[in-house]
Each structure stands twice: as C-alpha cells, then as structure tokens.
Amino acid sequence: MPKDPTQYDRLTYQYKRDMEPCGKPVCVYGWGTYTSGVLKGQPMKQFLDCYEDEEAALAAHPTAKSSSHWTEPQVNLNHLPDEDTPCAGGMYPDDID
Which of 39, 46, 64, 77 is the most exposed place for a label (fewest CB within 10 A)? Predict the structure, then answer.
C-alpha cells in the first residue's frame, strides 16, 4: 500500500547508484519529525517509492526537491546514555547479575 505523501513536511528525491532499496535509480523520501520514543524531536526520513528517472519521480511528487545523503539532517543520538552512564535496571547485557 503506497504511503500518503501529504503526511510529511517535505519530500526529497535522490539518485541511487546501487539502486537500493527497490532496483530503480531515483528514490523519493518523505520527511517529518519523530513524535514519540527515544528519537522524539529528531528528523524522520521515510522511503516512499522509486522511479526510473527524475521526470517520473517529479510527475508523481511535484513538490519533491533534489537531495543527497550529504545535505540531509542526521539523527542525533547524544541524548541517549553511553555505556558508562548508570541506568536504573541496567541497559546492557553485562549489567545483569
């Protein structure tokens, strides 16, 4: 079932040299913000679909803008505890007695 592109803040498309995740060279992604969980408030990137070329992608998603991995916002995990941070109940398998 196709995802609804109107539920995202913005759309982007990228050329995929390795043709992942669907075997076609242009992939479209929807962007938003995580609203719950440990990633709450972080940028969310959701795969929508792939197309044979840029024209087909823009015909299906006219508001999509060109993007690349180097220009996209990245998820920041600095808010998560590291291995040496004490956590109630323990967070890592070696914490189990």
Answer: 77
Q: Which domain holds residue 19?
A: 5-95
- The tens digit of pLDDT for each residue in 80-90 reads 666 666 665 55
**Number of domains into which the chain is organized:** 1
- What pTM was estimated for this model as a whole? 0.69
Secondary structure of 23-80 in the HEC alphabet?
CCCEEEEEEEECCCCCCCCCEEEEEEEEECCHHHHHHHCCCCEECCHHHCCCCCCCCC
3 state DSSP class of 7: helix
Rounded to whole angstroms, the Cα distance separating 77 from 38 reads: 9
